[in-house]
Amino acid sequence: MKGIQHRMVNVNGITMHVAEKGQGPVILFLHGFPELWYTWRHQILALSSLGYRTIAPDLRGYGDTEAPPSITSYSCMHIVGDLVALVDSLGVDQVFLVAHDWGAIIGWYLCMFRPDRVKAFVCLSVPFMPRKPMKPVDSMRLFFGDDYYICRFQEPGKIEAEIAHYGTSNVLKRIISSRKPGPPCLPKDNAFGIEPDTPIALPPWFSEEDLSYYTNKFNQKGFTGALNYYRALDLNWESTAPWSGTQVKVAVKFIVGDLDSVYTTPGVKKYVESGGFKGDVPLLDEVVVMEGVGHFINQEKADEINSHILDFIKKF
User: Fold this and answer.
1) Which residues carry out catalysis?
2) At 183, phi and psi to the nearest 5?
3) For 168, phi and psi rounded to 5 degrees?
4) Tens of pLDDT along 32-91?
5) To which protein family does this belong (predicted)?
6) Is the pTM of this model over 0.90?
7) pLDDT digits (tens, 9 = 90+) for 230-262
8) In Å, how far are 174, 189, 287 from 224, measured between CA atoms?
9) Rounded CA gap, 210 and 119, in Å?
10) pLDDT value, residue 64
């Protein structure tokens, strides 16, 4: 982590923690759940050494960034507002965007609302999801059942209590090490499949030191802010009605592992491969499906992802 600078920035009415390294064109990295700026450590070190200014915030509700208490403070409008203010604070008009998981969802909203601020977008794991006629949580419950993880996250305090019961470290270890195909479900009798006295092995690309950093930050902050993104899904659906049927007019490279729990959720692979994705994102330049790779792709295959990012942004 040598040379990575940390600072606090006032954005959109909250205080945001930002990790930064390098000089040159800005690459803005957006993490997902349950992660932090730290997920991008390999990309920050590699791309800052190649003439880029790398910026990785803890998103609203995570890590050392402020976590407003109300669910309604976690809408896509709020999060995109944070990022526009962050880009403004950097003194640049446009950034290269690299995002994963929830960061990718927010990245799509940023590209949809403010394409003028994004030079190009390297999207990991989660493709664009066009607005559907039915509210998302109702739709997910209908298709995947009450145990679908997003449905299980809806009731404030409930999943937080289950995480506390099993322990932050064990839950993070289980999520990060999982290679089970989607759709991810959390049974009510044992949400994370954690058994007493049965150790959970970390993957080789995620060390005990990495786990300790995550665990300490989530123990300090709690999970509620992070979970509120899921609790604001229906609010996002309501507030984005004016963008129904819109196309995303930003150049995009999409990268996913073929074992990713999002990609293996029914309907996603077909949407990506059938032309639906390209129809909604006409400037989609390339889709890369990495064989034998799971969800946390930027950590599992850090060198390959670094090369993919560089190869794409060098075009602009």
Assistant:
1) 101, 230, 295
2) -80, 135
3) -55, -45
4) 999 999 999 999 999 999 999 999 999 999 999 999 999 999 999 999 999 999 999 999
5) Belongs to the AB hydrolase superfamily. Epoxide hydrolase family.
6) yes
7) 999 999 999 999 999 999 999 999 999 999 999
8) 19, 21, 33
9) 31
10) 98
Hunting for tokens 């786990």 — which residue is that?
211
Half-sphere exposure at residue 316, Cβ-oriented, CA atoms within 13 angstroms: 21
Q: Report which residue type is found at 20.
A: E
Which of 149, 193, 164, 135 lies closest to 33, judged by CA? 149
Q: Two tokens at 312? A: 């794409």
Largest separation between any pair of C-alpha atoms in the chain: 53
Hey, what are 81's tokens?
Answer: 């507002």
Q: Are 108 and 80 in contact (CB under 8 A)?
A: no
| pLDDT grade for 196, boundaries at 50, 70 and 90 | confident
| Tokens 């923690």, located at residue | 17
Amino acid letter, residue 304? E
Distance CA 264, CA 109 (A): 23
Per-residue H/E/C for the chain: CCCCEEEEEEECCEEEEEEEECCCCEEEEECCCCCCHHHHHHHHHHHHCCCCEEEEECCCCCCCCCCCCCHHHHCHHHHHHHHHHHHHHHCCCCEEEEEECHHHHHHHHHHHHCHHHEEEEEEECCCCCCCCCCCHHHHHHHHHCCCEHHHHCCCCCHHHHHHHHHCHHHHHHHHHHCCCCCCCECCCCCCCCCCCCCCCCCCCCCCHHHHHHHHHHHHHHCCHHHHHHHHCHHHHHHHCHHHCCCCCCCCEEEEEECCCCCCCCCCHHHHHHHCHHHHHCCCEEEEEEECCCCCCHHHHCHHHHHHHHHHHHCCC
